[in-house]
Write a structure and sequence with these properties.
The protein has about 625 residues and is of the alpha+beta class. Among the domains are: about 210 residues, no CATH class; about 120 residues, Immunoglobulin-like (Sandwich). Helix content is about 25%, strand content about 30%. About 15% of the residues have low confidence.
Length: about 625
Amino acid sequence: MSQLWKFQPNQYWHGWDETGLSIFSGQPIRAIVREVIQNSLDAKADDSERVKVKFELFSVQREMLPGADSITAILSCCLEASADESEDCKAEVKEAYEYSLRRNFPILSCTDFGTNGMAGPYKKGNAFYTYMNSKGSSPGDSKRAGSHGHGKDAPLVNSALRTIFASANYIGESGSIEHLAQGKCVFMSHFQDEDQFDNIGRWGNHNMTPVSDLNAEYNWINPHPDELGTTISVVGFSSKDRDWMNEMIGHALISYFPAFVKDLLEIELRENGNVIYLNSKNFQGYFASSAVKNALNLVDRELGDELDRTQYFVNSMMESRGGKLRDQQAAAPLGLVDFNIYVDDNAPRSYCLIRRNMKICEKLPNLQRIPAKYNNFAMVIECQTEGANSLIRSMEPSEHDRVEIGRLKKDKKNDGEKLWRQLREKFTLVMDQEALPEQRISGQVDFLAKFFPDLANEGGGVTFEDEEGFDGDRIQIKPVKKRVRNHKRMQVANPDDQEDKDEPSKRKKREKIPDGTDNTPKPTNRRKLVGEIESQRVVELDPLSARLIIRLETAENCYVSVAEVGLDQADFLPITSASLGDVKGGKIFLSRDMFDEENKVELEVSVERKVIGGYILTLEVDES
């Protein structure tokens, strides 16, 4: 069976459910944005000021798609081979086969400029070969932000046909621009003329190697043949009907804000004449874009919140917006670390780790609990030594969105644990210097000196004996009558039976019980928690909702209730809904498995009526 797309004979069976693709299937646009930009930044040319990445959506006719009929024929074989697979598998194969019958195909073209391109020639160890002809393999350069390991599956997961084309223009051994192009598809094992073949196919030369020249009808695969760079073309872009441009902007801001701050990255997005540019000069304005935030919220509301936090991370890296750089030196393996910090009442009390101008995560080992003594802040942490970044990279999964010490080999685990201990120590030093309440006030009042008399003649202010008196913008200090104001109180308590502790004159009158009725209090399987409940917080979100943050000494099944505190009493405040747990009789039941490893739980609640005073929080352990 002669094919333009070639598959290797293989005796091992691979189903349709490909592990590498499933890693990125939850948020495919996020995956391709992170992977494409990451690889482009890693390939930045030494003489280039910044990298530009262009995402463009267009369509090609069936005749312009190399081997379109061949793809359909192979998917027909896969459809037959899927007869014994799961129902979900058969449905996905059928969907791909029917999609392959189209007369035109949407193409998402991802092209970078200012890079060296994926270098050839096509042999093991070179970038183009690794990207198109390996699995779980990546170049060994420790300076890379990511790798071409499993991450190269991110474009494939965005294709309704699981098919991509890669094109690279690079400087060859001759010293001039050379070109390679190849197609790749990931289907499932299947039979051709009674012979079993592998699940991965490639388009190119007869021996499954890339071509160096393209027919005219295929020039869209290499749209800029005279410029160094790489183009990845996704065939059958599955998100074309979504607001993909604004979603990409949101993901780019969240993941690559350091590159925009440092003017190392520019993005261009195109579709049907609509063009958007994102660069160091305008990226901050997109944080206020409702279209960008709405596009993210449609995927996951947490992404919208992450975008809001990112704006504060940007502030921490920009002195003009109140950010401060505080670097700390430590012994190996940590070495030199940059702490960019921004302190503000509205800041999210969050930090993030970046590496090679890409955000990795907002949660690190040994830094999962921030003491309440610090002011609200935002911080960006960046290790400056190659050794520390290489060690951190070894702890990241394919998605590069978290760190896990368990990923380290045994001989590196001690170094990994030491690195996070060192980082916590330096983090605490910076926070003590910059985020304690008294530190925040220090240094911010000097500019007021010119307004006030220097009563102690210490310099900096207006001398008390100034014959001219106070003029212009100077202020004379005069005593004013103290005004008494009622402040809204917010407190957390573990009260025992409040009614029994009230004075007799203030106790609520009990209803009369008909004769013959047993008025003895019924036994209960609950007890109220006494003593300290650690890290208790009630944060009012609006008059009808609040966020509860609770940490117990030991996680237990418990009921949580709130009361509104007034001047002389606390009234029970029924909870109507909660983001976690079961609402029963105006209280929330939390099971012990809802608490994290630190015996902590955080949830948002809505209450029955508007709160005018403050909150009292009560917990009862369920001993049934």
